[in-house]
Design a protein that fits this description.
Elements (H helix, E strand, L loop, with lengths): L3 H61 L3 H4 L2 H26 L4 H18 L1 H16 L7 E4 L2 E8 L3 E5 L5 E5 H6 L2 E3 L5 E10 L5 H13 L11 E7 L4 E10 L3 H18 L22 E5 L7 E5 L2
Antiparallel strand pairs: 1-2, 1-5, 2-3, 3-4, 6-8, 7-8, 9-10
Helix pairs in contact: 1-3, 7-8
Length: 315
């Protein structure tokens, strides 16, 4: 009996250990199964969130396009669509975290604790978002306008939450942070319906200035793109070293500015030549010093000399 009792106790202990292991394995299996199910559902929710974000953005674009305030302003429309996409994505990510067992209160607590650190680390990025909202409120430009921001000029292609995208005359893509757009001087070159052309011509000191002004004004008035109101204006605006500066002002529609400016520059040169009015070359005159016999020096640029300056002495 004494030998049988330890054996019975050992068998009973072994059975109890096996039962405990079985329960542990069952619990671990259940936990792994639940986690796998939750992970699969979370992945499905994430995929659905991505699809829903794109679908909601498309739906918002179609719906807002029917509103007059948004239909005629692509800048506000694209900004509003991006906001809708971001909001839907944030809601979907919260649902994913909840499915993985993270409580909503914990999410809020974590976001509240991390907001200060994130705000300090990304204060430049957050300022871009705030600047983007201010640009929508102030409306200094719209998509399609030609602007100059801190010396960088181009056509506005897009206004995002963080940046403004331009395309210059060479079709280069220029990305400017919204905070820089709001803080730097901004010139909207196409913000008005009309735009003024200003061209300076050099006329010889011995020529008739009134005749030169009339020739330039008549040439500009004859151009089909130049507006009648206000009419073209000419006047003497400078006495230069080698010529009298006569300035031509002409008003055109914004879309006609570039080509009309080139036309008037060429037309003015041809009109002055036809009228016999000289456009003098820049020249330099040597002044004698003391008893030196110094002849005037005229600096002339010729084609035969490859565009180099040639000094010609005249008595």
């Amino acid at each position: 009996m004494s030998n049988a009792s330890p054996i019975a106790e050992a068998v009973a202990a072994g059975r109890q250990a096996v039962a405990v292991d079985t329960v542990m394995i069952a619990k671990i299996t259940d936990m792994a199964g639940d986690f796998a199910i939750n992970l699969t559902i979370a992945a499905l929710i994430f995929a659905a969130t991505v699809i829903a974000a794109k679908w909601s953005a498309r739906l918002a674009r179609n719906a807002l396009s029917r509103v007059g305030a948004f239909r005629h302003d692509q800048t506000v429309l694209s900004f509003a669509v991006q906001v809708v996409r971001v909001v839907v994505f944030i809601i979907g990510m919260i649902a994913v975290l909840q499915r993985l067992g993270v409580q909503t209160t914990s999410i809020i607590a974590v976001l509240g604790a991390a907001s200060l650190a994130v705000g300090l680390a990304l204060q430049g990025t957050l300022s871009n978002v705030a600047s983007g909202i201010m640009l929508l409120v102030l409306r200094p430009y719209r998509v399609g306008d030609v602007v100059d921001v801190g010396g960088m000029a181009g056509t506005v292609q897009r206004l995002d939450l963080f940046t403004t995208q331009l395309s210059n005359a060479n079709n280069h893509k220029i990305v400017i942070p919204n905070s820089k757009v709001l803080s730097d001087p901004l010139t909207n070159l196409t913000g008005q319906q009309t735009r003024r052309i200003e061209i300076n011509f050099g006329v010889g000191y011995g020529d008739d200035l009134n005749k030169a002004r009339c020739v330039l004004a008549d040439m500009a008035a004859a151009h089909e793109k130049v507006l009648d109101d206000p009419p073209p204006w000419t006047g003497v605006t400078g006495l230069l070293d080698s010529a009298v500066q006569v300035t031509l002002h002409a008003w055109v529609k914004v879309e006609d500015w570039w080509q009309t400016q080139a036309d008037l520059m060429q037309g003015g040169k041809e009109a002055l030549d036809a009228a016999g009015i000289e456009i003098p070359f820049p020249h330099q005159v040597a002044v004698p010093y003391g008893d030196e016999d110094v002849m005037p020096v005229v600096r002339v640029r010729t084609v035969e000399d490859g565009g180099h300056d040639v000094k010609v002495k005249t008595r």
